[in-house]
User: Fold this.
Amino acid sequence: KTKSLESLKIIARVKSSMEEMRRRISDPHCVEIMRQNEKERLKIAEGVMSLLLKLDEIQGVESFVREARRAVAHELVSLHERVDAISTCKSTEGEGMEVPTDLQTREDESCNLGRAQ
Amino acid sequence: MAKQNKAIGIDLGTCNSCVAVYQQKRVHIIENEAGSKTTPSMVAFTSAERLIGEAAKNQFMLNPQNTVFDIKRLIGRRFKDDTVQRDLGLWPFRVVRGKKKKPMVEVEFKGFTRKFSAEEISCMILWKLKKTSETFLKAKVRDAVITVPAYFSDAQRQATRDAATIAGLNVLQIMNEPIAAAIAYGLDNKSNSSSQAKFILVFDLGGGTFDISLLSIKKNVFKVVATDGDSHLGGSDFDNNLVDYCSQKFKQKYNGDISRNPRALRRLLTACERAKKCLSSAMETVIELESLSEDKDFRITITRTQFEELNMELFQKCIKSVDKCLAGAKVLRSEVEDVVLVGGSTRIPKLRQMIQRFFRGKELCNAINPDEAVAYGAAVQAAVLIGHRIDLTVMDVTPLSLGIDVEGDLMDVVVPKNTSIPTRKEVLYTTSLDNQAIINISVFQGERAHVEDNYYLGEFTLSGIPAAPRGEVSIAVCFEIDGSGILKVSAEHKNTGVRSEIVVNSEDVGGLSKEEMERALIDAERFEVEDEEIKKITVKRLDFEKYSYKMRERVRQEKLKGLMDMDEIENIEKYVKEAIEWAEGHDDAECEKLDEKMQELKTICNALVWTSCTDSDDSQGSHSDKEESEVES
Assistant:
């Protein structure tokens, strides 16, 4: 039981770090920096990756812990896709304009997931 | 020895490096700032700074072109060398041809394109290790022994020496890695009596390289007889095989392809590496990755057997190399005296088993952490070279028994001598007095029966034990010795969890000089018979005392119950009282006398025991046996 509790604590910590990441990705100013500087974008992607690896590290979980972990893992993967989307749209201005709406819908999606658990 | 007079041993590895120092009669592996005993041999250059070790590794994914590793594959070589040309394609950083046909790494550093030689990069790693040691020792470090593979050419050795010199180190010796490992196991001292040359095989399977070295030793002098191996075989190959297997399984299940999803691959690789390590101790492990690819969850159980099957070809390749190495040197496997395991991958049980089988069941030298064995030996050599007298007891086994004092000042052994460490032993003890609230536990080392003939290591008290009759309290005493020989003794009251402990300084545990150690062992042999007798008598006397006290208590109870004949009870009471007085006055009673007295008392008390047995669950028949087991069980 203590182990499950410990695992849930780790998941909660990862989740709060993730929220911080999400805030940055949602901030137009940060997105602009990432778009101009590939390094900055990579940094965020790495940050998300390290959170994912932290989740994967949790061993021997019970089903309710697994559910919590799955929800966060899913959100992190979708965050990755959003970070990737930032780079793919830097090629043309026109496509770049579409990003915010795209981001908006994705964010709604992940927010729902957040509440669902 | 003065504080500033310390020499370090450095294992400058291809993937990881390790630094150690000999002090206070044992070898310390020095931890880096991240608390790790090995440091990645990596240097990274960014627009702002230069990073070495852990810091370089952590930012690798952000900056692969400017993160330099594997520099050991370049040092002392020429750009045109086949090995250099072959490795070029494997690195994300650029290697160009420099002056004197030297290979140079080209990186972006603080906004400029800079070229560094392999010596310069190695120098940075060595400098970092030097700093780490200085932080640990709180003193300047200059002298060092640095290890290199046995097959290194003169040019490679010279380049390594140069790198160390630039790093501000005074190189005492450039030493062969396998010899360092052999010294770590004290194999140099083991042979000094015989004039016949002996063979030692060092099997080194590290993160990325595999080296076999056959050494000969004659009168303390090592020679490298033959080497073999594979410059690109190591732990990561086992991980990759596991990754391939998992990708296949994923494909079978979901018809999805992970191999084109670098992030999923990275998660899988990390999980596989962890699974591999886990399978060295567990028989099976689970890899569980949610949302791995295309939002599919991946879960697979890997058994040790599966892992072994996946890597069997590589294992066999390793064994073949050993065979080839011996054949090349025309040495029979039966002629090999010792086999030393080095490198993290030698923890794989199957590999150990195969090596052992190849050498017809020979015991392998594997007690020292295989990641640290080379640095360990280098540190010993460094200490020898600056004039330390090495009294190193290779701490792979406890040289003498460890135990605590029990009733009658007897030594009760908890960890017998020659127990391999690290180890953990727990024994249950009980109180020797009624309502005893405090227990004093003294820790001793030695082979003699009486604690006073052994070496005292320390003592501690456990207080707060709830009131209870003697013998009815359960105290768990636990001896724990870690890999570096530090002994921790703890005592815990089972029901309440009251706990107390002592850490015995490693200097004391391993710190007996060779002479003291030998004396202890000779004494143990000389007094073996005598000690045995002392033990027997003490136990008998204690049994006798315990029995008489127990009878006294029973007489009291019977008196209260009033079921027995009063005269009979008083008669017994008198005898018991006499017995107690006799025992107190006859510390030196002989065995036969004790037996006789015990028999007498038992006969008299029989009536008492018989009647009380009917209304008590306490079985008195095997009384003395039970008491003894309470002390030792």
Summary: The interface with chain A takes residues 61-63, 263, 266-267, 270-271, 274, 286, 288-291, 295, 297 of chain B (CB under 8 Å).
